[in-house]
Design goal:
195 residues, alpha+beta, Aminopeptidase, 7 helices
Length: 195
Amino acid sequence: MNNSEQLDYLPVLKTQRLLLRKICLSDAEDMFEYACDPEVAKYTIWAAHQSLEHSKRFVNKIIEFYNTHQLTVWGIVDTNGKFIGTCGFGDLQLIDAKAELGYALSRKYWGKGYMTEAVTAAIDFGFSNMPLNRIEARCEPENIASVRVLEKVGMKYEGLLRQHIYSKGTYHDMKIYSILKQEWSDTKTTVNAEI
């Protein structure tokens, strides 16, 4: 399956408490509700959204990436139908059979296992339905909650990338984590038992 075919196929993923689906323009208002929070944006590469228009432009960019087959990212929706975050793969490198995992979640849902649940579904989809051998994720060392998510889903710490990205006017160190396809089947059973 080539990159174009793979990205046309972005099914809805269901977990115990969540629905992961394509993002659409009607999600912009809910996105703004969490993306305007400086605490949510603190460890992301994007600045806190300043207006609903900002969130609409952000969503339109995601839709454009869907249409040009550059992004595999889901909107995270709770059992009440509320759009509460995003989770998915960027930087798809199908020649090397790897992708980078990224995510963001409304602060109202922090500390309740929602992101672990969403990340587990995304990783499982990546290894089961995409030609991936490796999934990696980066986070700032101070982002303890993100570190916990990555460790809970079985990703292994590989090292510190010093001054790896320039964002919001300064350089940031990044921890890098990864999981390989061969490791996932053993890890998945443990992760699902803990959710």
